Amino acid sequence: MEIVVASGKGGTGKTTVATSLAMVASEQNTIRFLDCDVEAPNARLFLDPELDTVKEVGILIPNVDDDTCTYCGKCAEVCQFHAIAVIGKKTLVFPELCHGCGSCTLVCPENAITEELDVMGVLESGNAIKNIDFAQGVMNIGEPMAVPIIRELKRWAPAKASAIEIRDSPPGASCPVVETIRGADFALLVTEPTPFGLHDLKQVVEITKEFEMPTGVVINRDGIGNNAVEAYCEEVGIPIMMRIPMERRIAEAIASGKPLLKAAPEYQKDFENMLGNIITEVGA
Ligand code: SF4
Ligand code: SF4
After folding, report:
1. Which one-letter DSSP state was computed for residue 254?
2. Of 65, 71, 82, which is best to mutate to test ligand 1, by the most ligand atoms within 8 angstroms of its C-beta?
3. What is the pLDDT of residues 91-101, one digit of tens each?
4. 109/249: higher pLDDT
5. For residue 71, how far is its CA from the centre of ligand 1 (angstroms)?
6. What distance in Å separates the CA atoms of residue 168 and residue 186, rounded to the nearest whole number?
7. Among the atoms of ligand 2, which is closest to the Cα of residue 94?
8. Minimal CB count within 10 Å: which of 13, 83, 159, 225?
9. How many CA atoms lie within 13 A of 144 on its CB side?
10. Residue nearest to atom 8 of ligand 1 (CA)
11. CA of 95 to the centre of ligand 2 (A)
């Protein structure tokens, strides 16, 4: 079973919820945790993995052999991203536009194209607290595309078979979030009861609706703002699965890298109940 924890808005406590859920779930299940927030992965601060396996990740960029190329233009015709062009007696590749789809290599009648790995970042994995099988993607600074790293992270063979996979999504509602959500069984959306929280929650709900994915909401910093999130969830039929009140001691603990359940162990039962409800909803 795969549970994705997403938020839309950054800073809502998504990683806090994802790591707490993983810690609770690990007591009775084998857990694989994927930090898909590849631009700023920080779940390791709470789960403290020993990252002992590293793999470079990227996309395959075409490299044209000028001696074999006949400048027929078939590669440029097939490329949807305008990443390869024939200009006179030169076939040019624009790596920053290339998505590594391989179509140009497939259609080249002269086999003039070979592919080279353009390294965009690394995947790292290792054993974390509570025997959680942990993996994260780390994108190189300045890279334009997170999706290939997230896709590869999801594919990367876990060290051991996992009963439950928990994915910590990047913030926002763009392609990296869509890729993180794709294929999951349940989406847990963390929000806060503010106009910004509601605005961004709606955007992620549109994605989970598109995937027809069972979805639930956690309201973090409950007590600030207004009731608009509750009203929206009722309107669209999404259950509020848990509330975490705004409390200074929790905020301080999380800011210092302490897991929520260490700072406030009384939430253990709430997380257990939420996990049970997710398992029932998914029918796993
Ligand atoms: S399809 Fe092959 S032969 Fe034709 S222009 Fe492209 S690289 Fe050259
Ligand atoms: S690999 Fe795909 S995106 Fe890249 S140049 Fe070839 S056809 Fe275009």
Report:
1. H
2. 71
3. 999 998 999 99
4. 109
5. 5
6. 12
7. 5
8. 159
9. 6
10. 69
11. 9
Ligand nearest to the CA of 99: 2
pLDDT at 158 over 60: no
pLDDT tens sequence across 116-145:
999 999 999 999 998 899 999 999 998 888
Which residues, at least 6 apart from 209, have a Cβ–Cβ distance to it below 8 Å? 215
Report the share of the chain in percent with pLDDT over 70.
98
pTM of the complete model: 0.87
How high is the pLDDT of residue 111? 97
CATH topology for 2-57+120-282 is Rossmann fold (3.40.50)
Report which bound ligand comes closest to the CA of 69.
1
- Residue ranges, comma separated, of all CATH 3.40.50.300 domains in the chain are 2-57+120-282
Name which of 149, 130, 192, 140 is nearest 34 in CA terms.
149
CATH 3.30.70.20 in the chain, residue ranges: 66-111
Q: In what order do the strands lie in the sheet with 186-191?
A: 50-64, 113-127, 133-139, 31-35, 164-168, 2-6, 186-191, 215-222, 240-245
**Is 66-111 a CATH 3.30.70.20 domain?**
yes
The pair of structure tokens assigned to 21 is 């859920």
Ligand nearest to the CA of residue 81, numbered in listed order: 2
* Residue 221 pLDDT greater than 70, yes or no: yes
